[in-house]
Backbone:
C-alpha cells in the first residue's frame, strides 16, 4: 500500500536490523486518516470472503482493526493479554511468547463473542515471528470459528512469521512488506500487481 510505505519512509525509524519504530502514526500517536485508508484496503482485499468479525490483539492492532470493521460493517473483538492463567469456564487462553520483547502472556478470548459459524479476519500492526497471530488462530479455532485471513500493516519479511502462517494454510495479506532494516535503512518488497 503506497500511502503506508510512504509514511514509513517519511516518519519511521529503523532502530536496528530488527526494529522499526513507528510511534508517530501507529504505536503511540495514531494517524486516523491513514488508519481509514488501511481499513479500506483490508476491506477491499478480504471483502468477498464472508467475514463476520474482525479480531485483533491489544493494543496497537485496535485502531486499524476498528477501521477495517467499520469498512466491512461487522463487529470487532479485542483479544486481551492477561499476565496469568485465569480459571473461568467462559475464557479461552493460550500462551504467546514474544521473541522481540522477550515476554510471555496469556492471550485471552471470552467465548461468548465467537460462535461456531463465525468467519474471522485477524488484523495486527506487525508480523515478526508470527507468535501472536498463531496464538489468535489457536484460540479462534478452539472457539469453532474459521479463519478468513490475517491482515498485517507491517510485515518484517526477513522474519519467519509469514511463512509459518502460510504453512498453516492461512491467507496473509500485508500492506507493507519490509525486506531489510538497518540503522537508517528501510527497504520494501515491491507490491504485487
Ligand atoms: P510475533 O507475534 O509476530 O511473533 O511478533 P513479536 O512477538 O516479535 O512481537 C511482539 C511485540 O513487538 C508486538 O507488540 C509487535 O507488534 C511488536 N513488534 C515486533 N516487531 C516490531 C518492530 O519492528 N517495531 C515495533 N514498533 N514493534 C514491533 P505487542 O507487544 O503485542 O504490543 P502492542 O504494540 O500491540 O501493544
Ligand atoms: Na501488536
Ligand atoms: Na506492537
Residues:
Amino acid at each position: 500500500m503506497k500511502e503506508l510505505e510512504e509514511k514509513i519512509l517519511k516518519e519511521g525509524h529503523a532502530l536496528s536490523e530488527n526494529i522499526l519504530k513507528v510511534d508517530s502514526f501507529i504505536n503511540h500517536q495514531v494517524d486516523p486518516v491513514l488508519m481509514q485508508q488501511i481499513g479500506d484496503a483490508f476491506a477491499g482485499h478480504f471483502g468477498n470472503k464472508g467475514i463476520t468479525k474482525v479480531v485483533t490483539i491489544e493494543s496497537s492492532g485496535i485502531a486499524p482493526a476498528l477501521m477495517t470493521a467499520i469498512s466491512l460493517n461487522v463487529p470487532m473483538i479485542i483479544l486481551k493479554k492477561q499476565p496469568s492463567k485465569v480459571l473461568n469456564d467462559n475464557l479461552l487462553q493460550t500462551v504467546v511468547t514474544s521473541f522481540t520483547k522477550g515476554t510471555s502472556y496469556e492471550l485471552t478470548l471470552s467465548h461468548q463473542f465467537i460462535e461456531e459459524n463465525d468467519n474471522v479476519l485477524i488484523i495486527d500492526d506487525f508480523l515478526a515471528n508470527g507468535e501472536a497471530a498463531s496464538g489468535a488462530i489457536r484460540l479462534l479455532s478452539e472457539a469453532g470459528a474459521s479463519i478468513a485471513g490475517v491482515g498485517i500493516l507491517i510485515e518484517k519479511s526477513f522474519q519467519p512469521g509469514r511463512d509459518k502462517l502460510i504453512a498453516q494454510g492461512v491467507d496473509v495479506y500485508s500492506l507493507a512488506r519490509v525486506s531489510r532494516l538497518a540503522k537508517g535503512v528501510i527497504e520494501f518488497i515491491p507490491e504485487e500487481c
The chain has a mean pLDDT of 96. Residues 27, 60, 125-126 surround sodium ion (ligand 3) (CB under 6 Å). The first strand starts at residue 13 and ends at 14. The chain is about 30% helix and 35% strand.
